[in-house]
Structure formats: structure tokens, C-alpha cells
Amino acid sequence: MARSETIPVLTSELAVEILNKTLEELQTPQNVKKLDEAKDNVGNEMLKMMQFLFPIVMQVQMDVIKEFGFPNGRDGIIKFAQMLRSLEREDAEVARLNALIKTYYLPPVAVNTSESPAEERTSSS
């Protein structure tokens, strides 16, 4: 018989604690090695990053949130992500930490500061 899992209320303080713990775990030697090996295989290809890096980061986060009382597996991470999204709008530190975690599985965005989009359109015609 499956017991219903109670999900903790995600306060800003708890979110910051969980996100910091996730970042610590991502920086352990074994996770750095896993991530580095995956990065060697993907380069800057977004699809490959999502295919190879994202699951590693999500597994680390699932292990962390389980320690804080969230259900194990997909349901827990989805509920956590939904609560986190609403907290990000209200708390800059939560948004900053979550953005740091995303840098593990999203390619860096190159920003070209030398030309504005309007200049690019006129110079390329």
C-alpha cells in the first residue's frame, strides 16, 4: 500500500538551504568528474547538454531534496521545481542560486556587445 507523502512547505530559507546543498554536492570530486566527462562529450550543443548533463544535475538535486523531506524521484523534483519557480519571483537569492545550478547544464550565452540587433540587420543587407 502506497503511503501518501507529505511535501514540505518551501520557504525562501529552505529553498536557499537546498540550493546551496545542491551546489555543494555538484562540486564534490565524484560529481565534478561525472560532469566533466559529460561536458567533454557535448561541447556547447544545447540538445546534448540537456541529454547528458541535465540528468546528472537532476539526480544530484533529487538526492538533496529527498534529505529535506521531498518525495524521491520524478514527483518530488517536479513539485520542488514548481515551488521554486514561484519563490524565484519573490526572492533574488533563490533566483541567483537556481541560475547557478542551471549553468551546469545550459551552455553559456554569448552576448555580442559590439553591435545592436538593429545594426546587425542593416549591416548584413
Describe the structure in your own words:
With 125 residues, this protein is an all-alpha fold. It has six helices and no strands. Helix 1 packs across helix 3, helix 2 runs antiparallel to helix 3 and helix 3 (46-67) packs across helix 4 (74-90). Residues 115-125 have low confidence and may be disordered.
Give the SSE layout.
Layout lengths: L11 H15 L2 H14 L3 H22 L6 H17 L1 H11 L14 H7 L2
Give a nutshell description of this structure.
The chain has 125 residues and is an all-alpha fold. The chain is 69% helix and 0% strand. It is built from 6 helices and no strands.
List keywords for this structure.
125 residues, mainly alpha, disordered C terminus
- Rg measurement, Å: 18 Å
Calculate the mean pLDDT score and round it.
85
Largest sheet: none
The H-and-E topology, N to C, reads as HHHHHH
**Strand content range:** under 5%
Helix content: 55-70%
Distance between the termini: 67 Å
